[in-house]
């Protein structure tokens, strides 16, 4: 009988819940959502790590303002994550220059994922968020094979063309037995300055119906706000720079739902004060 590839799954010592932030579609805001959720979880008192698993297009160095910083090997021969906003960060961008392309085939990706999971000095974490690249490919598969993923958060924009990709992501996670925690709808609306209007940037599609039928939670809606994008460029997530902004509150509420659905495991939550 062929070996089950998921037999190689082993937990990372000290690391509690591993949560993937994903989407079948590019550019919907996975990295923005992952970064702001990491900050929100840290602000709720949890020990949090954020792994940028987008090997071909890492965005964490820019989003965290650590572009020219490179990680070092500690005495234990493990990579030292960079700490920002009380979150431990790791990205291939901390090893390779931003402008250089990473040209790797599948087996190299599997190896790289293994190193980022196990050869990083994560210490004790309640949550390790993994910002996935778009799509349903080798990196997603290798994460699910290597470590027990407690759940996946799918990110989408409201329109049907994005929903089609969310369906693919949900299908992929169910094939590798990772529970889907729910869907974050990003860029749901835009409120022009000086108004309280909610302008739809994208036509609203059948997302809510689909989620209801499938019994999948909608974790929240995050409005479009140029400040969110500016925060990403400036290296400070809005949840850190302006926690009282509507978008930051939306991220905090989504984080609370994640905590509820995937409670931090006992033994790693010593500092949690929520
Ligand atoms: N709610 C929002 N309001 C305004 N801008 C946003 C919002 N969410 C994301 N953005 C912006 O949209 C762009 C794409 O976001 P992001 O990089 O997070 O997407 P992604 O899904 O991770 O992309 P990729 O598929 O390339 O990894 C970025 O410029 C980001 O700042
Ligand atoms: Mg991204």
- Average predicted local confidence, pLDDT: 90
What is the name of the CATH topology? Rossmann fold
Structural class designation: alpha/beta
Which cofactor or ligand species appear? adenosine-5'-triphosphate, magnesium ion
The largest pleated sheet is described as: 8 strands, mixed
CATH architecture: 3-Layer(aba) Sandwich
- Helical content band: 25-40%
Assign the CATH superfamily.
P-loop containing nucleotide triphosphate hydrolases
Report how far the terminal alpha carbons are from each other.
47 Å
Uncertain regions: pLDDT < 50 for 5+ in a row?
A: 269-274
Strand content: 15-25%
- Number of DSSP E strands: 8
């Amino acid at each position: 009988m062929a070996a089950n590839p998921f037999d190689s799954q082993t937990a990372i010592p000290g690391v509690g819940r591993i949560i993937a932030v994903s989407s079948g579609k590019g550019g919907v805001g996975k990295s923005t959502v992952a970064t702001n959720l990491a900050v929100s979880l840290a602000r709720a008192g949890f020990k949090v790590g954020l792994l940028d698993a987008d090997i071909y297009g890492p965005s964490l160095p820019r989003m965290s303002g650590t572009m020219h910083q490179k990680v070092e090997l500690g005495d234990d021969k493990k990579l030292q994550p960079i700490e920002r906003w009380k979150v431990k960060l790791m990205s291939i961008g901390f090893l390779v220059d931003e402008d250089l392309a990473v040209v790797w085939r599948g087996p190299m990706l599997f190896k790289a994922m293994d190193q980022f999971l196990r050869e990083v000095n994560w210490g004790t974490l309640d949550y390790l968020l993994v910002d996935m690249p778009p799509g349903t490919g080798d990196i997603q598969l290798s994460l699910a094979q290597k470590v027990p993923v407690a759940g996946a958060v799918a990110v989408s924009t409201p329109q049907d063309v994005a929903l089609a990709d969310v369906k693919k992501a949900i299908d992929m996670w169910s094939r590798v037995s990772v529970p889907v925690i729910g869907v974050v709808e990003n860029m749901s609306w835009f409120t022009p300055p000086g108004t309280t209007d909610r302008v739809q940037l994208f036509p609203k599609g059948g997302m809510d119906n689909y989620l209801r039928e499938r019994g999948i939670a909608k974790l929240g809606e995050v409005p479009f706000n140029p400040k969110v994008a500016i925060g990403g460029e400036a290296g400070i997530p809005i949840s850190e720079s302006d926690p009282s902004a509507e978008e930051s509150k939306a991220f905090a509420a989504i984080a609370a739902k994640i905590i509820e659905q995937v409670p931090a495991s006992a033994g790693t939550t010593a500092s949690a004060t929520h």
